[in-house]
Amino acid sequence: MSQLDKKAGLLRRTSSSKKTLKEKVVLMYDEIFSKEDPAKNAPRFWDELFLMKVNLEYLELKLESVDEEVQHSQANINALFHYCIQALGEEHPIKVVNALQTLCALFRGVHQKNRSASGFDIINLLMGFDKAEQRMKDLMERLDSLLCGEGSESLKSLCLKLMLCLVTVTDNISQNTILEYVMINSIFEAILRILSDVSSKHLHGYDPVVLLALLVNYRKYESVNPYIVKLSIVDDEPTLDGMGMVIQQALTEYNRQFRDKQEETQGGFFSTLTSMVGSMFIADADEKLSVQTNEAILLALYEAVHLNRNFITVLAQSHPEIDIATTPTTNSPTTPTTPLGTMTPTLDMMNNPELPLDPNLQTTNLLITFLKYASILMQDTKDEHRLNSARLCLIILTCIAEDQYANAFLHDDNINFRVNLHKMLVIYLMVEFIVTHMMKDFPMDLYLRCVQIIHKLLCYQKKCRIRLHYTWRELWSALINLVKFLLSNETTLLVKHNIFHLALLVVNLFNMFITYGDTFLPSSNSYDELYYEIVRMHQVFDNLYCMVLRVSTNTGQWKEAASKVTYALVNIRAIINHFNPKIESYTALNHISQLSEEQVLEVVRSNYDTLTLKLQDGLDQFERYSEQPKEAAFFKELVRSISLNVRKNVSLNTMSQDVLLKEFSTIS
Amino acid sequence: MEDTELEISPAPSDQNSPSLSISSSSSPSVSLPSTPSSSCGSTQPVAPLLGVINEGVCELSLVIDAEVAQRACHEVLQKVKLQQVGSDDVTDLHEQTDPVVPGGPSGPIAAEEEAKPEGLVPGTVKSTRRRQKHNPSKQSWLLRLFESKLFDVAMAISYLHNSKEPGVQAYIGNRLFSFSHEEVDFYLPQLLNMYIHMDEDVGDAIKPYVVHRCRQSISFSLQCAWLLGAYSSDMHISTQRHSRGTKLRKLILSDELKPVGARARREALTLTPFCPALPHSTATTAASGSLVPDHGLSPSKRTHQRSKSDATVSISLSSNLKRTASNPKVESSQDEPVRLAPQREFIKSLMGIGKRLATLPTKEQKTQRLISELSLLNHKLPGRVWLPTAAFDHHVVRVPHTQAVVLNSKDKAPYLIYVEVLECENFETSSVPIRIPENRIRSTRSVENLPDCGMTAEQRAGSFSVVPNYDNDDEAWSVDDIGELQVELPELHASSCDNISQFSVDSITSLESKEPIFIAAGDIRRRLSEQLAQAPTTFRRDPEDPSAVALKEPWEEKVRRIREASPYGHLPHWRLLSVIVKCGDDLRQELLASQVLQQLQSIWQQERVPLWIRPYKILVLSSDSGMIEPVVNAVSLHQVKKQSQLSLLDYFLQEHGATTSENFLSAQRNFVQSCAGYSLICYLLQVKDRHNGNILLDSEGHIIHIDFGFILSSSPKNLGFETSAFKLTAEFVDVMGGPDGDMFNYYKMLMLQGLIAARKHMDRVLQIVEIMQQGTQLPCFHGSSTMRQLKERFHMSLTEEQLQLLIHQLVDGSMRSLTTKLYDGFQYLTNGIM
User: Fold this and answer.
1) Which of A169-173, A612-616, B59-63, B627-631 is predicted with the least confidence, judged by mean pLDDT?
2) Interchain CB contact of B474 with A (< 8 Å)
3) Could you give the domains of chain B?
4) Average model confidence (pLDDT) for chain B?
5) DSSP secondary structure letters along A212-275
6) What residues in A contact B405, CB-CB < 8 Å?
7) By CB neighbour count within 10 A (0-12 exposed, 13-18 middle, 19+ buried), where does A125 fall?
8) Tens digit of each residue's pLDDT (9 = 90 or more) over A116-139
9) Which of A110, A482, A529, B698 has a CB 3.0–4.6 Å from the CB of B634, allowing a cystine?
10) B273 vs B772: which has the higher pLDDT
11) Is the predicted pLDDT of residue B377 greater than 80, yes or no?
12) B518 in contact with A, Cβ within 8 Å
């Protein structure tokens, strides 16, 4: 009881007196948790209750301890829930605020106590079975009208917090039975409205986006989730823009913090990128920013990219880089939205979006920001959250690489400006990843995704005859090094991973270049260089061949996987066997001990015609990404982690009473 | 003072409609002063009527200036009346009926002149009569000239400028109404400069016309406002504020000058049988032939027209309202849409972008910034906005922002944008197109980026309604999406006629027949080099010179590409325009040069000498901003040389084929004709700063000079370089086939012919320049001898033989000139221009 007392807000905490003065609201709570109907003697009880400042902690604690007395106080709790919902419709904003906070405490308190209890018991305790449907319908309608109304932004913000609170009360979102009602009474449109509204978007931060991402993940594999369906068909430009901008802000903020921390030390392995794109990637070593909090944002990005076709355009929308730290919630510089159909009388729209006159301001778009973010993340994947985030990043990139429009954008040669570096950026990023993660704790899954992304990009380039002016040599040597790594760590890796699958993918990338190089290589020279690189590193391929041949002739679990690689190597071996003797005889003929690159290229050029290659099947085909069943477990875990994090961080108190009171003092 | 001005301003406009409505009843006999029928007998009954009108006019002029009316000679005034009646409601009529007059103009006019003074004197004020007597012969001569069909806008402008007689000026002011809009528009800078800087009489003579046109047209209003601002800027700030030009500009921008009908439109419909006709309706009535029956017909016709345009207005209004209803943020404060605001805001945003770009240090940052700024601008389109440099009515619907480029300039940031527009009948009355969101592209581009599927994409888009049914399309999409990359469909490749895709077909068939298929590595390598060689000669992307690539792309290709990618591309009236936005640059000299070029072009056309020049449209927005119409399919010689690393002749050979091929020959001819044209221009106007960055080469071999920042008396940094008459490098001569070739002689001959023709019409050229000299601080008018020297360069005193010699000297001098070479070196050192 003493703890309860403390929470009850002792007025004289230090006083030795046993008799403590309790807040009025605490007394009223106590009444609710008694057997009696509190309104029996005080007909205005509920009215008054919502005029009191809420004591969240006390109420939650009270609910947790309600256990023994469940039976007798349930009616009162139901009544409290009911009156909360009613109070949401009140004119008086203070009442609404208090009701929202009380509801939040109710949801939390009930769940905290009854962690093991079934969802139905919880619903029964809160609203009573018979009334539950009506109550939740009322609640959702009230929230909907609050969110869509012209009311205060703080109220809307509080509504979002309540929703986040409700959505994350259980560790596993799919076990949150109350959400079933949220599915039936959708507030999707209200969330979108918030996102599309220029003025409110900045006030609510990431909440609407996170909320949406979480709702989409409610029983996503088991049932028809209306939020999934709705999200997939959104095509309203301002809304999608708004969503993109919230995500971009979050990622930008992270990137900025990272940059600030690492201002001095220049990272080695990203120097290529940095030199390529100026200050775009400023990279470095160890930091532990809240990758975790950004999981939710990444999830939102993933859902948007994965579910919604139109969102891809948003990726490419360029905006000036927004720094929330420096430009807070003022009417932001980036307020495109609200399509101004005609140039109607009030042309304030025309004047408004004058971007701040800061020459250092980088213009960017969501895709660039995302790539930056991914590059920072991928530098260090030891921490589990970072590993997960990196995986999610790669999944998002996979989705992007598969999307026709995104590809068209990535490869649009006619986009002047560094956007045309995007396509290379993705490959750069992949190459950097390949080069930097060959370690004992080999992230096989990430490597597979990485190589597949490259493959998908190549397939697109091959199909559309897009010739990137990229020095493919960098990719080839990265891939060859990867093979080398696989070979030298064969035994340790084989314990955990199917390295043959990865090897097959790598070899097939080479096969793509060998067979279809004419369709996407930037110059005839680059084709020669491909052969040069293969011949130069022939030992790696020889070793790989020996290894897979050995494994495939033995009987074992890898037999089949290995024999696929043997077959895939046929052309590479043909090239090696064709050119090596030619080079040797050239060396002998000209009495040179070491051939220069130019000389080797010369040999290559003059000996193409006698080389016959085998056409391999299905090089330009790939398995399309699908979330289920392969990734379902990953996403379940991810959502769980996000839920925990959001629950921990959502606090209604951030929206402090003082602020609200100040805001409403003029009204009341 | 300003207040009165504002109050007064509606007066002349109100003046217009009543006086017109009165005159219309009698117009059958009066409206055509030059017809033989208007003899003594027929003028008499008109006289009382004229008296009525006269009062009106007196009021009008009193409002402007009491003295003008008194000073105006009566005869002229009467003419004025007749003209105004004729011009105000049948502006285009005059021109069309003139040729119909039988027996040539001189006879009837002469008769009329004799008749009129006699017939009208009794009814006129005595003082004016005395004035007229004072110089009767001159007046009547002038009048004869003014009435003759030879009297064109050029002459009108010249008399307006030279005559000191208020009556004449007033007459010409009214005579302006009878010229076609296009004719007068050419001289708008001159007219307005006179309005600003010359004495009041001229101003008063010009103002009614300007006000009248402003009422008719938004674009004319803005054009005037911009020019008035620009040409007032050189005045001292204190005088500028109270100057006539500034006041008129304010008046226009205050949007007081709404169409006369706008307010009284409904009343006009019901009360008055006559309303000021729309230009095209009069054109149709005039075309129908005789006037008298036509007059009976026209009211009904006109009301019909009117109601139609009313309907469109109300439609666009209602659509505005609808939009505001769905978007509570945009409050419509007035019932009528603000006429000028959208366009002004549009221009303002473009200028704002330019200003902000100038603050960025690198070209790359500028480009980047430009693109994102434009993407924001896109959110406000479509609107009732247009590009003033275009030749047809349209609404701007979208700016394909990713295509915009920053142009090469040292410290300013001019940029080039492409603008998607929808052509329309009349941008003021046609309704503004509905916005189609950007992401609709996805639905129209289902087979996107398959290069050879352009047609299918087009066809699909064609069947697409403006607001597409999304759900249907979504289904179609998911099918493509799965189909495309996963398994290459053989049909897709059957339609594309290339050999490489054969592989994918093979790779599928080989799944069935397990026979291994062999390919030769040599073939792959060969195809690669063939493919690369086939690719059209494009310039390589250079971050320091982003415009090179954008400009090298053939215009048609660019249009097709942008159209495919645009959500509006499927609409039949879709057009692509481009414009260079200049911020921080004074384009008044450019405009002057452009006018001279146009004048010379028309002179050469008239005289049938095949010199080729390409004047481009210049829009002066203020004394330090404006827009330029880019020359399409042309890149600068600098870019040509830098990208191709070839001599000019070799580049010609590469682009057009061997010296004997037809392509080359026609390109060479084009080159010579354009060189001759521009050589003369450079000589006459003393165009300086002729480095290779300022000379374009188009895809047909023409050279086109751009950037007339240094003309007449100004020269860059006054370094004394570039003393040669024009730029004629050895490379140029090589393209012409060497100094002994026929083409080189042809070049010199063309120059001679061109100069002779120009000399013949020297006044038309001089006039343009001379008027603009007034009240200006432009560097090209530096010193006092600018006009004299310009005149001297026409060499009026020389015989044709002497002229020929002169041309030879000029050409020889230019060829041998080291300074040209030196200048190029200087440019290379300072600006990196080759």
Assistant:
1) B59-63
2) yes
3) 142-256 (no CATH), 340-428+543-584 (3.30.1010), 633-831 (1.10.1070.11)
4) 67
5) HHHHHTTTTTTS--HHHHHHHH---HHHHHHHHHHHHHHHHHHHHHHHHHTSSSPPSTTHHHHH
6) 416
7) buried
8) 667 778 888 888 888 888 999 999
9) B698
10) B772
11) yes
12) yes
Q: Give just the sign of the alpha carbon dihedral B757, B762, B764, B766.
A: positive
Interface of A with B in 239-258 (CB under 8 A): 240
A596 touches chain B (CB under 8 A): no
The pLDDT value recorded for residue B438 is 66
CA distance B519 to chain A (A): 5
Give the range among A612-626, B197-211, B660-674, B807-821 with minimum mean pLDDT: B807-821
Burial B277-299 (b: 16+ CB within 10 A, else e): bbeebbbebbeeeebeebbeebe
Residue B832 has pLDDT above 90, yes or no: no
Reduced to 3 states (helix: H, G, I; strand: E, B; else coil), residue A355 is coil
Task: State the Cα–Cα distance between residues B395 and B399, nearest whole angstrom.
Answer: 12
Residue B20: the pLDDT is: 36
Cis peptide before A629 (omega within 30 of 0): yes
Please give the share of chain B, as a percent, with pLDDT higher than 70: 58
pLDDT at B251: 82
Q: CB distance A612–B521 less than 8 Å? A: yes
Half-sphere exposure (Cβ direction) of B118: Cα atoms closer than 13 Å: 8
- Higher-confidence residue of B832 and A484: namely A484
CB contact under 8 A, A404 and B531: no
- Within 344-383 of B, beta carbons closer than 8 Å to A belong to 345-346, 348-349, 352, 356, 359-361, 364-365, 367-369, 371-373, 375-376, 379-380, 382-383
Q: Which residues of chain A does B333 touch, with a Cβ-Cβ cutoff of 8 Å?
A: 345-346
3-class DSSP state for residue B391?
Answer: coil
Inter-chain CB proximity A418 and B442 less than 8 Å? no
CA A623 to chain B, closest CA, distance in angstroms equals 7
Mutation to test the B interface, candidates A343, A456, A619, most B Cβ within 10 Å: A343
- For chain B positions 591-650, those within 8 Å of chain A (CB to CB) are none
Top residue of A248, A338, A344, A625 to mutate, by most chain B CBs within 10 Å, is A344
**CB proximity A319 to B under 8 Å:** yes
Mutate to test the interface with A, among B525, B526, B557 (most CBs of A within 10 A): B525
Is the separation of the CB atoms in A552 and A563 below 8 Å? yes
- Using the Cβ of A455 and the Cβ atoms of chain B, whether some distance falls under 8 Å is answered with no
Compute the distance between CA of residue A399 and CA of residue A404 in angstroms, rounded to an integer.
Answer: 10
Give per-residue pLDDT as tens, A265-308: 544 444 444 444 433 333 333 334 466 678 899 999 999 988 88
Which among A342, A409, A576 is the top mutation candidate for probing chain B, defined by the most B β-carbons within 10 Å of its own β-carbon?
A: A342
Judge whether B615 and B596 are in contact, CB under 8 Å. no
Rounded CA-CA distance B790/B792 in Å is 5
CB contact (8 A) between residue B524 and residue A463:
no
In this prediction, residue A336 carries a pLDDT of: 34
E strand or H helix at B421: strand B415-423
Q: B687-699: per-residue pLDDT in tens?
A: 887 788 888 888 8
Task: Tally DSSP H helices, then E strands, for chain B.
Answer: 40, 10
CA torsion, ordered B615, B616, B620, B624, to nearest 10 deg: -100
Measured N-to-C along each axis, helices A472-488 and A538-553 cross at an angle, to the nearest 10 degrees, of 40
Report whether A532 contacts A574 (CB < 8 A).
Answer: no
* Tokens describing residue B98: 């003139």
B488 touches chain A (CB under 8 A): yes
Burial B67-92 (b: 16+ CB within 10 A, else e): ebbebbbbbbbbbbbbbbbbbbbbbb
